[in-house]
Specification:
Number of domains: 1
Largest sheet: 5 strands, antiparallel
Order of helices and strands: HEEEEEEEEEEE
Helix content: under 10%
């Protein structure tokens, strides 16, 4: 299945069911702090896709070097950003080789996935 996913440019944890594909991503948020900010953590499985991945969005001026996902002991890799509560975040993931992909669990917008925090 991994070979099928890699040949077809599919990134993430993929299961093929009747030619429909899905990915499992994880986004967590904290409660607003005293200063009105929220910490948003973007996570992916540690081994899929292979190579480096960054979360890139309007919260970091679409800078692919600002928030690389780092390996965690729980089998994931993640990066966290701090934003104002009530913000709408537009983001995408950028993998090695310049491969962009979206989080299928977040609503898609004209600038990638979008979440309100």
């Amino acid at each position: 299945m991994r070979d099928h996913a890699q040949r077809n440019g599919i990134i993430g944890r993929v299961r093929v069911v009747d030619r429909l594909e899905w990915r499992e991503q994880l986004i967590k948020t904290t409660k607003p702090g005293r200063n009105g900010t929220i910490r948003v953590t973007f996570a992916l499985p540690a081994d899929e896709p292979l190579g480096a991945v960054s979360v890139v969005g309007d919260f970091n001026d679409w800078n692919p070097f600002a928030h690389p996902l780092r390996r965690r002991t729980n089998g994931t890799r993640s990066a966290a950003v701090t934003v104002q509560a009530g913000s709408m975040l537009h983001f995408r993931y950028l993998a090695d080789g310049g491969v962009w992909f979206d989080d299928d669990t977040a609503p898609a917008g004209d600038r990638g996935a979008s979440i309100a925090v």
